[in-house]
Protein backbone atom coordinates (compact mmCIF):
# COMPACT_ATOMS: atom_id res chain seq x y z
CA UNK A 1 0.00 0.00 0.00
CA UNK A 2 1.59 3.32 -1.00
CA UNK A 3 2.51 5.63 1.83
CA UNK A 4 1.51 9.32 1.81
CA UNK A 5 4.32 11.74 1.10
CA UNK A 6 6.14 13.02 4.18
CA UNK A 7 5.11 16.36 5.61
CA UNK A 8 7.59 19.08 4.64
CA UNK A 9 9.77 20.09 7.58
CA UNK A 10 8.94 23.74 7.04
CA UNK A 11 5.34 23.08 8.05
CA UNK A 12 5.33 22.07 11.74
CA UNK A 13 2.68 20.01 13.44
CA UNK A 14 2.49 22.36 16.41
CA UNK A 15 2.60 26.11 16.90
CA UNK A 16 3.80 27.27 20.30
CA UNK A 17 2.55 30.63 21.52
CA UNK A 18 3.21 32.45 24.75
CA UNK A 19 0.18 31.01 26.51
CA UNK A 20 -0.73 27.79 24.79
CA UNK A 21 0.20 24.92 22.50
CA UNK A 22 -1.86 24.95 19.34
CA UNK A 23 -2.11 21.95 17.04
CA UNK A 24 -1.59 23.13 13.49
CA UNK A 25 -2.87 21.28 10.46
CA UNK A 26 -0.86 22.03 7.37
CA UNK A 27 -2.28 19.30 5.17
CA UNK A 28 -2.61 19.47 1.41
CA UNK A 29 -4.58 22.45 0.16
CA UNK A 30 -6.61 22.86 -2.95
CA UNK A 31 -6.52 25.86 -5.20
CA UNK A 32 -9.15 27.68 -3.17
CA UNK A 33 -6.81 27.72 -0.17
CA UNK A 34 -8.96 25.41 1.90
CA UNK A 35 -7.50 22.69 4.03
CA UNK A 36 -8.24 19.25 2.61
CA UNK A 37 -11.37 20.58 0.93
CA UNK A 38 -12.74 22.06 4.20
CA UNK A 39 -13.39 25.77 4.39
CA UNK A 40 -11.36 27.65 7.01
CA UNK A 41 -13.30 29.19 9.89
CA UNK A 42 -14.95 32.50 9.11
CA UNK A 43 -14.02 35.78 10.78
CA UNK A 44 -16.79 35.54 13.38
CA UNK A 45 -15.87 31.98 14.37
CA UNK A 46 -12.26 33.09 14.80
CA UNK A 47 -13.42 36.10 16.78
CA UNK A 48 -15.45 34.10 19.29
CA UNK A 49 -12.70 31.53 19.63
CA UNK A 50 -10.91 34.14 21.77
CA UNK A 51 -11.05 32.87 25.38
CA UNK A 52 -13.82 34.52 27.37
CA UNK A 53 -15.38 36.30 24.38
CA UNK A 54 -18.63 34.34 24.35
CA UNK A 55 -19.20 34.76 28.07
CA UNK A 56 -18.88 38.53 28.22
CA UNK A 57 -20.79 38.94 24.95
CA UNK A 58 -23.78 36.98 26.30
CA UNK A 59 -24.02 39.16 29.40
CA UNK A 60 -23.54 42.33 27.38
CA UNK A 61 -26.34 41.46 24.96
CA UNK A 62 -28.74 40.84 27.84
CA UNK A 63 -27.81 44.24 29.29
CA UNK A 64 -28.24 46.03 25.95
CA UNK A 65 -31.69 44.80 24.96
CA UNK A 66 -33.36 47.12 27.55
CA UNK A 67 -31.70 50.13 25.91
CA UNK A 68 -34.31 49.84 23.17
CA UNK A 69 -37.11 49.16 25.65
CA UNK A 70 -37.01 51.99 28.17
CA UNK A 71 -38.16 54.93 26.03
CA UNK A 72 -41.07 53.07 24.44
CA UNK A 73 -42.06 51.57 27.81
CA UNK A 74 -41.97 54.99 29.48
CA UNK A 75 -44.12 56.58 26.78
CA UNK A 76 -46.73 53.81 26.94
CA UNK A 77 -46.72 53.76 30.74
CA UNK A 78 -46.95 57.54 31.28
CA UNK A 79 -49.37 58.21 28.43
CA UNK A 80 -51.60 55.40 29.69
CA UNK A 81 -51.68 56.62 33.29
CA UNK A 82 -51.71 60.40 32.67
CA UNK A 83 -53.37 60.57 29.23
CA UNK A 84 -50.68 62.89 27.85
CA UNK A 85 -48.20 62.08 25.13
CA UNK A 86 -46.72 65.56 25.59
CA UNK A 87 -45.84 64.75 29.21
CA UNK A 88 -44.47 61.33 28.21
CA UNK A 89 -42.30 62.89 25.50
CA UNK A 90 -41.02 65.59 27.86
CA UNK A 91 -40.07 63.01 30.49
CA UNK A 92 -38.13 60.87 28.00
CA UNK A 93 -36.44 63.98 26.55
CA UNK A 94 -35.32 64.93 30.05
CA UNK A 95 -33.82 61.48 30.52
CA UNK A 96 -31.99 61.80 27.20
CA UNK A 97 -30.56 65.19 28.18
CA UNK A 98 -29.49 63.89 31.59
CA UNK A 99 -27.78 60.90 29.93
CA UNK A 100 -25.86 63.22 27.62
CA UNK A 101 -24.47 65.03 30.67
CA UNK A 102 -23.87 62.12 33.04
CA UNK A 103 -22.72 59.33 30.68
CA UNK A 104 -19.23 60.75 29.97
CA UNK A 105 -18.60 61.11 33.70
CA UNK A 106 -19.67 57.52 34.31
CA UNK A 107 -17.37 56.37 31.51
CA UNK A 108 -14.49 58.37 32.99
CA UNK A 109 -14.97 56.57 36.31
CA UNK A 110 -15.02 53.23 34.47
CA UNK A 111 -11.68 54.04 32.86
CA UNK A 112 -10.22 55.17 36.17
CA UNK A 113 -11.43 52.40 38.49
CA UNK A 114 -12.40 49.52 36.22
CA UNK A 115 -15.60 48.22 34.66
CA UNK A 116 -16.79 46.00 37.49
CA UNK A 117 -16.25 48.54 40.28
CA UNK A 118 -18.26 51.28 38.55
CA UNK A 119 -20.72 49.58 36.20
CA UNK A 120 -22.50 47.53 38.87
CA UNK A 121 -23.38 50.38 41.29
CA UNK A 122 -24.14 52.73 38.37
CA UNK A 123 -26.53 50.16 36.89
CA UNK A 124 -28.14 49.55 40.27
CA UNK A 125 -28.83 53.28 40.61
CA UNK A 126 -30.30 53.42 37.10
CA UNK A 127 -32.48 50.36 37.77
CA UNK A 128 -33.69 52.00 40.99
CA UNK A 129 -34.63 55.08 38.96
CA UNK A 130 -36.63 52.94 36.52
CA UNK A 131 -38.48 51.21 39.35
CA UNK A 132 -39.18 54.57 41.00
CA UNK A 133 -40.61 55.85 37.71
CA UNK A 134 -42.83 52.76 37.57
CA UNK A 135 -44.20 53.38 41.06
CA UNK A 136 -44.68 57.11 40.43
CA UNK A 137 -46.66 56.43 37.25
CA UNK A 138 -48.78 53.71 38.83
CA UNK A 139 -49.66 55.50 42.06
CA UNK A 140 -50.22 59.03 40.73
CA UNK A 141 -47.14 60.85 41.99
CA UNK A 142 -46.71 64.52 40.95
CA UNK A 143 -45.37 65.17 37.47
CA UNK A 144 -42.05 66.47 38.78
CA UNK A 145 -41.42 63.08 40.38
CA UNK A 146 -41.59 61.45 36.93
CA UNK A 147 -38.90 63.80 35.63
CA UNK A 148 -36.68 63.22 38.66
CA UNK A 149 -37.04 59.43 38.52
CA UNK A 150 -36.28 59.17 34.81
CA UNK A 151 -33.31 61.52 35.16
CA UNK A 152 -31.84 59.06 37.69
CA UNK A 153 -31.55 56.46 34.93
CA UNK A 154 -28.82 58.58 33.33
CA UNK A 155 -26.18 56.65 35.29
CA UNK A 156 -26.74 53.64 32.99
CA UNK A 157 -23.23 52.70 31.80
CA UNK A 158 -22.42 52.46 28.11
CA UNK A 159 -22.32 48.67 27.92
CA UNK A 160 -21.63 48.74 24.19
CA UNK A 161 -18.57 50.90 24.78
CA UNK A 162 -17.33 48.62 27.54
CA UNK A 163 -17.70 45.63 25.24
CA UNK A 164 -15.73 47.38 22.49
CA UNK A 165 -13.04 48.23 25.03
CA UNK A 166 -12.76 44.54 25.92
CA UNK A 167 -12.33 43.59 22.27
CA UNK A 168 -9.63 46.22 21.87
CA UNK A 169 -7.84 44.82 24.91
CA UNK A 170 -8.17 41.17 23.85
CA UNK A 171 -7.22 41.68 20.22
CA UNK A 172 -4.28 43.99 20.84
CA UNK A 173 -1.12 42.12 19.90
CA UNK A 174 -3.19 39.09 18.97
CA UNK A 175 -4.69 38.76 22.42
CA UNK A 176 -1.38 37.82 24.02
CA UNK A 177 -0.82 41.16 25.66
CA UNK A 178 2.63 41.54 24.15
CA UNK A 179 5.57 39.34 23.43
CA UNK A 180 4.58 38.78 19.82
CA UNK A 181 6.50 39.88 16.79
CA UNK A 182 5.04 43.23 15.80
CA UNK A 183 5.32 42.65 12.08
CA UNK A 184 3.20 44.31 9.44
CA UNK A 185 1.29 41.07 8.84
CA UNK A 186 0.46 40.74 12.53
CA UNK A 187 -0.69 44.36 12.75
CA UNK A 188 -2.90 43.84 9.73
CA UNK A 189 -4.40 40.68 11.25
CA UNK A 190 -5.10 42.49 14.53
CA UNK A 191 -6.74 45.35 12.61
CA UNK A 192 -8.97 42.96 10.68
CA UNK A 193 -10.01 41.15 13.86
CA UNK A 194 -10.87 44.46 15.54
CA UNK A 195 -12.83 45.48 12.43
CA UNK A 196 -14.85 42.25 12.72
CA UNK A 197 -15.42 42.87 16.45
CA UNK A 198 -16.61 46.45 15.85
CA UNK A 199 -18.90 45.22 13.08
CA UNK A 200 -20.44 42.64 15.39
CA UNK A 201 -20.96 45.23 18.12
CA UNK A 202 -22.70 47.60 15.71
CA UNK A 203 -24.91 44.78 14.43
CA UNK A 204 -25.71 43.93 18.07
CA UNK A 205 -26.71 47.56 18.67
CA UNK A 206 -29.05 47.46 15.70
CA UNK A 207 -30.50 44.13 16.78
CA UNK A 208 -31.17 45.35 20.32
CA UNK A 209 -32.81 48.55 19.12
CA UNK A 210 -34.88 46.48 16.70
CA UNK A 211 -35.97 43.93 19.31
CA UNK A 212 -36.32 46.27 22.29
CA UNK A 213 -39.30 48.40 21.15
CA UNK A 214 -41.19 45.34 19.89
CA UNK A 215 -40.61 43.50 23.18
CA UNK A 216 -41.58 46.56 25.21
CA UNK A 217 -44.81 47.12 23.28
CA UNK A 218 -45.72 43.44 23.62
CA UNK A 219 -45.10 43.34 27.37
CA UNK A 220 -46.98 46.57 28.05
CA UNK A 221 -49.92 45.48 25.93
CA UNK A 222 -50.14 41.80 26.89
CA UNK A 223 -49.44 42.13 30.63
CA UNK A 224 -49.75 45.60 32.20
CA UNK A 225 -48.46 49.09 31.25
CA UNK A 226 -45.52 48.93 33.66
CA UNK A 227 -44.32 45.49 32.49
CA UNK A 228 -41.88 46.84 29.90
CA UNK A 229 -40.06 49.03 32.41
CA UNK A 230 -39.99 46.28 35.04
CA UNK A 231 -38.62 43.60 32.71
CA UNK A 232 -36.13 46.07 31.22
CA UNK A 233 -34.72 46.93 34.64
CA UNK A 234 -34.35 43.26 35.56
CA UNK A 235 -32.66 42.39 32.27
CA UNK A 236 -30.28 45.35 32.51
CA UNK A 237 -29.16 44.51 36.05
CA UNK A 238 -28.81 40.80 35.27
CA UNK A 239 -26.83 41.42 32.10
CA UNK A 240 -24.40 43.84 33.74
CA UNK A 241 -23.79 41.42 36.61
CA UNK A 242 -23.03 38.60 34.16
CA UNK A 243 -20.86 40.89 32.03
CA UNK A 244 -18.76 42.29 34.87
CA UNK A 245 -18.33 38.81 36.40
CA UNK A 246 -16.02 37.95 33.49
CA UNK A 247 -12.96 39.51 35.09
CA UNK A 248 -10.42 37.70 32.89
CA UNK A 249 -11.39 39.79 29.86
CA UNK A 250 -11.75 43.13 31.64
CA UNK A 251 -9.22 45.75 30.47
CA UNK A 252 -6.75 46.63 33.23
CA UNK A 253 -6.77 50.08 34.76
CA UNK A 254 -3.89 52.05 33.33
CA UNK A 255 -1.40 53.55 35.79
CA UNK A 256 -1.15 57.30 36.17
CA UNK A 257 1.46 59.02 34.06
CA UNK A 258 3.52 62.10 34.73
CA UNK A 259 2.33 65.36 33.20
CA UNK A 260 -0.57 67.80 33.38
CA UNK A 261 -3.08 64.98 32.70
CA UNK A 262 -2.24 62.03 34.99
CA UNK A 263 -5.06 59.99 33.44
CA UNK A 264 -3.93 60.75 29.89
CA UNK A 265 -5.04 63.42 27.44
CA UNK A 266 -8.80 64.13 27.75
CA UNK A 267 -10.57 62.68 24.70
CA UNK A 268 -12.02 66.09 23.78
CA UNK A 269 -8.47 67.42 23.44
CA UNK A 270 -7.19 64.47 21.43
CA UNK A 271 -6.29 65.36 17.82
CA UNK A 272 -9.20 64.93 15.46
CA UNK A 273 -11.81 64.09 18.11
CA UNK A 274 -13.88 67.27 18.06
CA UNK A 275 -14.57 67.18 14.29
CA UNK A 276 -15.43 63.49 14.63
CA UNK A 277 -17.93 64.26 17.41
CA UNK A 278 -19.50 66.90 15.16
CA UNK A 279 -19.98 64.19 12.53
CA UNK A 280 -21.58 62.00 15.23
CA UNK A 281 -23.98 64.84 16.03
CA UNK A 282 -25.06 65.13 12.38
CA UNK A 283 -25.31 61.35 12.01
CA UNK A 284 -27.53 61.13 15.09
CA UNK A 285 -29.85 63.69 13.49
CA UNK A 286 -30.38 61.22 10.66
CA UNK A 287 -31.69 58.58 13.07
CA UNK A 288 -33.80 60.90 15.21
CA UNK A 289 -35.53 62.62 12.30
CA UNK A 290 -36.18 59.34 10.44
CA UNK A 291 -37.99 57.87 13.44
CA UNK A 292 -40.32 60.82 14.02
CA UNK A 293 -41.06 61.42 10.35
CA UNK A 294 -41.86 57.74 9.73
CA UNK A 295 -44.32 57.68 12.62
CA UNK A 296 -45.97 60.83 11.25
CA UNK A 297 -46.08 59.36 7.72
CA UNK A 298 -47.75 56.17 8.97
CA UNK A 299 -50.16 58.19 11.11
CA UNK A 300 -51.25 60.29 8.12
CA UNK A 301 -52.30 57.07 6.39
CA UNK A 302 -54.04 55.61 9.40
CA UNK A 303 -51.43 52.95 10.09
CA UNK A 304 -49.65 54.34 13.12
CA UNK A 305 -49.45 50.91 14.72
CA UNK A 306 -47.34 49.72 11.77
CA UNK A 307 -44.70 52.42 12.24
CA UNK A 308 -42.68 50.28 14.65
CA UNK A 309 -42.50 47.39 12.21
CA UNK A 310 -41.50 49.72 9.37
CA UNK A 311 -38.71 51.25 11.45
CA UNK A 312 -37.61 47.77 12.49
CA UNK A 313 -36.91 47.03 8.82
CA UNK A 314 -34.41 49.88 8.73
CA UNK A 315 -32.64 48.41 11.77
CA UNK A 316 -32.77 44.95 10.17
CA UNK A 317 -31.07 46.24 7.02
CA UNK A 318 -28.40 47.91 9.10
CA UNK A 319 -27.87 44.77 11.19
CA UNK A 320 -27.44 42.56 8.11
CA UNK A 321 -25.10 45.05 6.46
CA UNK A 322 -23.02 45.30 9.62
CA UNK A 323 -22.48 41.56 9.81
CA UNK A 324 -21.58 41.41 6.12
CA UNK A 325 -19.24 44.38 6.44
CA UNK A 326 -17.48 42.68 9.35
CA UNK A 327 -16.82 39.56 7.30
CA UNK A 328 -14.96 41.58 4.66
CA UNK A 329 -11.44 42.85 4.89
CA UNK A 330 -11.42 46.64 5.25
CA UNK A 331 -9.96 48.37 2.19
CA UNK A 332 -7.53 51.04 3.33
CA UNK A 333 -7.47 52.99 6.59
CA UNK A 334 -10.64 54.12 8.33
CA UNK A 335 -9.72 57.74 7.58
CA UNK A 336 -10.15 57.01 3.88
CA UNK A 337 -13.26 54.82 4.20
CA UNK A 338 -15.21 57.22 6.42
CA UNK A 339 -16.21 59.81 3.76
CA UNK A 340 -17.18 57.04 1.34
CA UNK A 341 -19.46 55.47 3.95
CA UNK A 342 -21.06 58.83 4.66
CA UNK A 343 -21.53 59.44 0.93
CA UNK A 344 -23.27 56.06 0.58
CA UNK A 345 -25.52 56.87 3.55
CA UNK A 346 -26.42 60.26 2.05
CA UNK A 347 -27.28 58.67 -1.28
CA UNK A 348 -29.41 55.90 0.23
CA UNK A 349 -31.27 58.29 2.52
CA UNK A 350 -32.85 59.79 -0.58
CA UNK A 351 -34.72 56.52 -1.19
CA UNK A 352 -37.33 57.02 1.58
CA UNK A 353 -37.89 60.59 0.33
CA UNK A 354 -38.45 59.35 -3.22
CA UNK A 355 -40.67 56.48 -2.06
CA UNK A 356 -42.86 58.80 0.01
CA UNK A 357 -43.05 61.53 -2.64
CA UNK A 358 -43.60 59.35 -5.70
CA UNK A 359 -45.80 56.56 -4.33
CA UNK A 360 -47.15 57.57 -0.94
CA UNK A 361 -47.24 53.86 -0.10
CA UNK A 362 -46.22 52.67 3.35
CA UNK A 363 -45.25 49.30 1.89
CA UNK A 364 -42.90 50.86 -0.66
CA UNK A 365 -41.51 53.09 2.06
CA UNK A 366 -40.76 50.01 4.17
CA UNK A 367 -38.66 48.56 1.35
CA UNK A 368 -36.85 51.86 0.89
CA UNK A 369 -36.03 52.01 4.61
CA UNK A 370 -34.71 48.45 4.50
CA UNK A 371 -32.25 49.41 1.75
CA UNK A 372 -31.43 52.81 3.29
CA UNK A 373 -30.51 51.16 6.56
CA UNK A 374 -27.78 49.14 4.88
CA UNK A 375 -25.46 52.15 4.85
CA UNK A 376 -25.93 52.91 8.53
CA UNK A 377 -23.90 50.13 10.14
CA UNK A 378 -20.79 50.46 7.90
CA UNK A 379 -20.79 54.19 8.63
CA UNK A 380 -21.05 53.69 12.38
CA UNK A 381 -18.47 50.88 12.38
CA UNK A 382 -15.93 53.09 10.62
CA UNK A 383 -16.84 56.02 12.85
CA UNK A 384 -16.23 54.00 16.02
CA UNK A 385 -12.95 52.69 14.61
CA UNK A 386 -11.80 56.30 14.25
CA UNK A 387 -12.95 57.09 17.79
CA UNK A 388 -10.93 54.15 19.10
CA UNK A 389 -7.82 55.19 17.19
CA UNK A 390 -8.00 58.83 18.29
CA UNK A 391 -8.85 58.24 21.95
CA UNK A 392 -6.07 57.77 24.52
CA UNK A 393 -5.94 54.11 25.46
CA UNK A 394 -6.49 54.69 29.16
CA UNK A 395 -9.67 56.72 28.48
CA UNK A 396 -11.23 54.54 25.79
CA UNK A 397 -14.63 54.15 27.50
CA UNK A 398 -14.89 57.89 27.93
CA UNK A 399 -14.07 58.55 24.27
CA UNK A 400 -16.62 56.07 22.96
CA UNK A 401 -19.25 57.37 25.37
CA UNK A 402 -18.65 60.89 24.07
CA UNK A 403 -19.36 59.57 20.59
CA UNK A 404 -22.60 57.98 21.82
CA UNK A 405 -23.48 61.24 23.59
CA UNK A 406 -22.99 63.08 20.29
CA UNK A 407 -25.31 60.61 18.60
CA UNK A 408 -27.94 61.07 21.32
CA UNK A 409 -27.73 64.85 21.05
CA UNK A 410 -28.09 64.60 17.29
CA UNK A 411 -31.08 62.30 17.66
CA UNK A 412 -32.80 64.86 19.88
CA UNK A 413 -32.11 67.68 17.39
CA UNK A 414 -33.14 65.52 14.45
CA UNK A 415 -36.37 64.48 16.16
CA UNK A 416 -37.24 68.13 16.79
CA UNK A 417 -36.43 69.14 13.20
CA UNK A 418 -38.27 66.17 11.71
CA UNK A 419 -41.32 66.78 13.89
CA UNK A 420 -41.39 70.45 12.92
CA UNK A 421 -41.17 69.63 9.21
CA UNK A 422 -43.84 66.93 9.43
CA UNK A 423 -46.23 69.21 11.32
CA UNK A 424 -45.65 72.48 9.47
CA UNK A 425 -45.20 71.12 5.94
CA UNK A 426 -45.90 67.38 5.55
CA UNK A 427 -44.52 64.03 6.59
CA UNK A 428 -43.29 63.49 3.04
CA UNK A 429 -41.32 66.73 3.15
CA UNK A 430 -39.99 65.65 6.53
CA UNK A 431 -37.92 62.95 4.82
CA UNK A 432 -35.74 65.76 3.52
CA UNK A 433 -34.41 66.27 7.07
CA UNK A 434 -32.44 62.97 7.28
CA UNK A 435 -31.06 63.63 3.79
CA UNK A 436 -29.87 67.09 4.86
CA UNK A 437 -28.41 65.68 8.09
CA UNK A 438 -26.50 62.96 6.23
CA UNK A 439 -25.19 65.50 3.72
CA UNK A 440 -24.06 67.70 6.63
CA UNK A 441 -22.17 64.78 8.17
CA UNK A 442 -20.46 64.13 4.83
CA UNK A 443 -19.53 67.79 4.41
CA UNK A 444 -18.10 67.97 7.94
CA UNK A 445 -16.04 64.83 7.33
CA UNK A 446 -14.63 66.22 4.07
CA UNK A 447 -13.84 69.64 5.53
CA UNK A 448 -12.06 68.21 8.57
CA UNK A 449 -10.35 65.30 6.82
CA UNK A 450 -6.64 64.99 7.55
CA UNK A 451 -3.95 63.64 5.28
CA UNK A 452 -2.13 61.74 7.98
CA UNK A 453 -2.05 57.96 8.14
CA UNK A 454 -4.00 55.91 10.64
CA UNK A 455 -4.04 57.73 13.93
CA UNK A 456 -2.40 56.26 16.98
CA UNK A 457 -3.53 56.48 20.53
CA UNK A 458 -1.83 59.09 22.62
CA UNK A 459 -0.60 59.12 26.19
CA UNK A 460 0.26 55.42 26.27
CA UNK A 461 2.23 54.79 29.45
CA UNK A 462 5.74 53.74 28.61
CA UNK A 463 5.50 50.72 30.88
CA UNK A 464 2.57 49.31 28.90
CA UNK A 465 3.93 49.75 25.38
CA UNK A 466 4.20 46.47 23.49
CA UNK A 467 7.68 45.09 23.12
CA UNK A 468 9.15 43.47 20.04
From TrEMBL:
Specify the superkingdom. Answer: Bacteria
Q: Where do Basic and acidic residues bias regions lie?
A: 181-192
Pfam families assigned to the protein according to its UniProt record, in alphabetical order: MFS_1
What InterPro entries does this protein map onto? MFS (IPR011701), MFS_trans_sf (IPR036259)
Residue ranges spanning the membrane: these are 61-79, 85-106, 118-141, 215-244, 276-298, 304-328, 340-358, 364-387, 399-422, 428-447
Q: Which UniProt keywords apply?
A: Membrane, Transmembrane, Transmembrane helix
Molecular function as annotated in GO: transmembrane transporter activity
State the residue spans of region: Disordered.
173-192
Name the UniProt record assigns to this protein: Transporter
Identify the species of origin.
Answer: Streptomyces lacrimifluminis
Amino acid sequence: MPQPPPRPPSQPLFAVTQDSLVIADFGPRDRSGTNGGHRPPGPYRRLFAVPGARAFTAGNLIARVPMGMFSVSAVIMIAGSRGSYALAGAVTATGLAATAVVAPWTARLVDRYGQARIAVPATALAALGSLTLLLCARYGAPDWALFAAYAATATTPNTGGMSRARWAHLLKDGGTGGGRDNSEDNSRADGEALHTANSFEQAADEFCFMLGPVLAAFLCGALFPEAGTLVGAVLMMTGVLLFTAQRSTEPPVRPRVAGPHPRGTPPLRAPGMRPLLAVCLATGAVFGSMEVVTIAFADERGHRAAAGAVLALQAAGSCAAGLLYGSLRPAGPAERRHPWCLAAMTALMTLPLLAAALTGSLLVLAGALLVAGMATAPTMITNMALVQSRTPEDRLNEGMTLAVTGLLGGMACGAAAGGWAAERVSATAGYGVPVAAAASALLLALLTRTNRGPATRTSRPASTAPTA
